[in-house]
Amino acid sequence: MPETYFQRGFGLKAEVGGVLVRSYGSAVVDHLKANGFEAVVGGLHLKLAREFGFCYGVDRAVEYAYETRRRFPDRRIFLSGEIIHNPDVNRRLQEMNIVILPDSTDPRVRYADVRATDVVILPAFGVTVFDRAVLDAKGCVLVDTTCGSVLNVWKMVHRYAGDGFTVVIHGKHYHEETRATASQALTHDGGRYVCVRNTAETDLLCAFIRGDVPAETIRTRFAAASSPGFDPDIHLARIGLANQTTMLMSESLEVEARLRAAMRDRYGESALADRFRAFDTICSATQDRQDAVRAMLEGGGLDVMIVVGGYNSSNTQALAGMCTPQLPTYHIDGAHCLAADTIRHRPVGTATEATAAGWLPDGTVTVGLTAGASTPDSVVGMVVERLLVLRGCSAADLLATHAPAASDCV
Predict the structure, then answer these.
(1) Catalytic residue check, 177
(2) How many CB atoms lie within 10 A of CB 327?
(3) Helix 148-162 × helix 176-185 angle, to 10°
């Protein structure tokens, strides 16, 4: 019987390595890394975060997608949603005739056109147990790129649900990863979950736990973010906390602290071990990128911060959220957002793109740059090159620098 499930690639890294480097590498970014992550060119002092861009899990997922096309050159290949949240990467995969299936809460609808002879790539976020069941029934080839950090969260969710704890997930209930994680709880008899997006929603749960709001308020507010039949009176008596792996770490810790305090107030310190569990499930790459941005902010001296990444990327949004209270911050999804007098960006906490004027002051300006874990070096490099052009410079001028020293290109 032919193998139909692949989780470790096809051993074709050497064959696709060249095209990956050409597609996603950047000489400009490599130069900045080699020269202390800084350069001064044309009145711009560019500072690049020490950790940014593609993480191991994303790099692996993209590589597996390229290997899949090489391994099955004549088959129809589908992606069950975007492989990662980056428009440039997903565009390149579509140009390889890999079809990204539209989102749907009903997997029977989403995979209606998939046949047994087709190949389906599962994205780095993972898919729900319901998606997997539909695909398994079809008998098609599955290439699973689910990130190891996500799989670790699933293990914790199974442990909670198996021990009778309702899983409280700090995450966006509509996000692919959170939906996949939440579905894991439902594989256990009586398994339940509820998702909290932020500390405000956490405080509402805490108010119920302390007896300050009625159960109906919780049922109504979390109707779209909880398991079928969720009953706060029953299902918030024992809770286990998990996270969408790309959330802001400081907020996740605050969510944990507030829920722990509410359970202590309701049941007493001695009952906590039997009523509340928590385990840090923020992935290390996400934390590394947040730590690098925090170090930049604490170092001071920045005039503007540019955060590069897909607008639907949670970890990129978290980076922008860290910077916005400190200095002018612009979350952009690529170099096309930059113009001499204006910048198109997604302000933190909004769902639409905005345009800001006068974003790049005249004279010497220190610009901080970082990128979410789904952003390739090539996109960051194009942003840097666009910044240089706006100051009358070019990539060649930057590549001629060897340390943060002034260079006048105008």
Answers:
(1) yes
(2) 14
(3) 30
Q: How many domains does the chain have?
A: 3
Query: Final residue of a domain: which of 147, 165, 180?
Result: 147
Q: Mark whether 15 and 62 lie in a shared domain.
A: no
Sign (positive or negative) of CA dihedral 27, 30, 35, 37: positive
Q: What is the Cα–Cα distance from 246 to 192, expressed in whole angstroms?
A: 22
CATH number of 187's domain: 3.40.1010.20
Whole-angstrom Cα distance, residue 286 to residue 61?
A: 16
Mean pLDDT calculated for residue range 188-214:
98
| CA separation for the pair 219, 155 (Å, rounded) | 27
Residue 212, judged by CB atoms within 10 A of its CB (0-12, 13-18, 19+), counts as exposed
Q: What is the pLDDT of residue 280?
A: 76
CA-to-CA distance for 12 and 28, rounded, in angstroms?
28
Same domain (yes/no): 155, 264: yes
Model confidence pLDDT, tens digit, residues 224-276: 999 999 999 999 999 999 999 999 889 999 999 999 999 999 999 999 999 99
pTM for the complete prediction? 0.93
349 shares a domain with 317: yes
Residue 295: both structure tokens together:
């170090």
Residues 44, 388: contact at Cβ < 8 Å?
yes
pLDDT, tens only, 173-185: 999 999 999 999 9
Q: Of the residues 51, 63, 67, 177, which is catalytic? A: 177
